């Protein structure tokens, strides 16, 4: 029986998704919990790997179960053995043809960013941070150069294992909460920003490298047209430094409706 699971996790304490010799990754903890619940070794395949410090609001995995359990039991039983910052949200029986990575039609990421003269405290590890004001219109102009199919080599980490740097970005949306002038200092109003990305797939550090460029443009250091220059250069050296992983959330894959899988978790309401 093939089972698909929806997983949420706070990535602060872990070395990313993919299994490591240290055993301190989300995949390591999930597979250990599944194996204890099933009383048999289990391995999983995920829809999209995340880096150290990156959070997951809808990671989807699949595995072939050696034992028969109800869908509710896979959720509650596995969660019994998981750390408190990782949780299975749902389980579904799926056909053997389902593959969490190969069947995804697109993937979504969100980035939460605090604009404030003072660093985050309560939100530490859950938001990125800038202490200079950002220009929404400049950033919205800049992202237009990234939409569509492109060679994203300029936004690719040196250790990226993707076979091709060519990916398709379907949408990038930028929103901002109400600015609090009363919380400002030195003329910098405080607010939260949210950046949403949807694409066919993403390269290693691709979102964080795009974020670094958007922040540079938003702060007025570079014009929006500079994003096109970076893209055309196909060289990591031309782009801004890689931005913090703290505010990055994997919002999950999207699948054709016939698979019958949820597209969101309750944690989406918190992120909104």
Taking the sheet with the most strands, its summary is: 11 strands, mixed
Overall shape: globular
Strand content: 25-35%
**The level-1 CATH class of the largest domain:** Alpha Beta
Q: SSE order in H/E notation?
A: EHEEHEEEHEEEEHHEH
What is the element layout, followed by pairings?
Elements lengths: L1 E8 L16 H13 L6 E2 L8 E10 L6 H10 L5 E9 L11 E10 L12 E3 L5 H8 L4 E4 L14 E11 L3 E6 L2 E12 L6 H13 L7 H8 L14 E7 L12 H5 L1
Parallel strand pairs: 3-11, 5-6
Antiparallel strand pairs: 1-3, 1-4, 2-3, 5-10, 5-11, 7-8, 8-10, 9-10
Helix pairs in contact: 1-2, 3-4
Keywords, separated by commas or semicolons:
Alpha-Beta Plaits; 2 domains; alpha+beta; 272 residues; eleven-stranded mixed sheet
Q: How would you summarize what this structure contains?
A:
Helix content is 21%, strand content 30%. By secondary structure, the protein is of the alpha+beta class.
């Amino acid at each position: 029986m093939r089972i698909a699971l929806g997983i949420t996790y706070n990535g602060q304490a872990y070395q990313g998704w993919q299994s490591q010799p240290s055993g301190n990754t989300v995949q390591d903890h999930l597979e250990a919990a599944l194996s204890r619940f099933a009383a048999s070794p289990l391995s999983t395949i995920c829809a999209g790997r995340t880096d150290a410090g990156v959070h997951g609001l809808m990671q989807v995995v699949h595995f072939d179960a050696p034992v028969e359990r109800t869908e509710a039991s896979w959720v509650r039983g596995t969660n019994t053995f998981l750390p408190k910052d990782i949780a299975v949200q749902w389980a579904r029986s799926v056909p053997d043809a389902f593959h969490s990575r190969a069947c995804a039609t697109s993937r979504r990421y969100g980035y939460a960013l605090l604009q404030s003269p003072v660093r985050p405290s309560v939100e530490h590890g859950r938001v990125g941070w800038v202490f200079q004001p950002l220009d929404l219109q400049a950033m919205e102009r800049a992202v237009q150069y990234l939409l569509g199919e492109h060679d994203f080599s300029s936004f690719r980490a040196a250790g990226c294992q993707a076979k091709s740097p060519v990916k398709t970005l379907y949408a990038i949306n930028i929103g901002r909460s109400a600015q609090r002038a009363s919380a400002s200092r030195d003329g910098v109003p405080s607010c939260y920003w949210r950046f949403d990305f949807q694409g066919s797939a993403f390269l290693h550090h691709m979102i964080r490298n795009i974020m670094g460029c958007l922040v540079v443009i938003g702060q007025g250091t570079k014009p929006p047209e500079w994003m096109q220059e970076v893209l055309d250069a196909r060289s990591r050296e031309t782009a801004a430094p890689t931005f913090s992983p703290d505010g990055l959330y994997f919002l999950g894959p999207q699948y054709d409706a016939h698979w019958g899988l949820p597209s969101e978790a309750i944690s989406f309401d918190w992120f909104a």
